[in-house]
Amino acid sequence: MSVSRKRVIFDLKASCERVGRLYPILVDRRGNIIDGRHRLAADENWPKIRLERVETEEQRLVARLISNVCRRQVPAGEKSEMLEKLGEIYLSEGVNRGKIAYKIAEMTGMSYRWVMKYLPDKLKERPGLGGPSKALKLDKRKEKTQKSKVAHLATEEYKL
Fold first, then answer.
1. Phi, psi of 18 (to 5 degrees)
2. For the whole model, what pTM was predicted?
3. For the chain: N or C, fewer Cβ within 10 A?
4. Contacts from 48-51 at CB under 8 Å and sequence distance 24+?
5. Which tens digits make up the pLDDT trace of 105-146?
6. CA torsion sign, 23 to 24 to 27 to 31?
């Protein structure tokens, strides 16, 4: 167990003694933890709420994202990690790379701008820049333009 995890569990135990268990552990229909792993580690009898409508990995990720971001300060890396997992689910379902951010915003209630800020680049296509494939095309166009300038400089007309 990492030092930071031990510290979180210690702090949870101390807080529980002072004010009680403020936030229940959230579990899906089958009992998988959505949110509350540290709370469970601090006290295995911590109250749980079963969310019967949450059945799929997509639904678990959406619930986890909402419950964490709306309740506490979540590090940028953790936000990106959750969005990446959700984006990969949508990509595997055939959602176009350019629509993934919209889909996540719709499903989570987060703004499109917020999603774009934390969604890894490999899962988005920005207007004007595009995703990986569009960027490659832009590079090739730039390369052709540079070659044509060089070719022009080598002509007899230029030398005059």
1. -80, -50
2. 0.67
3. C
4. 48/24, 49/24, 49/25, 51/26, 51/27
5. 999 999 999 999 999 999 988 655 555 555 555 555 555 544
6. positive
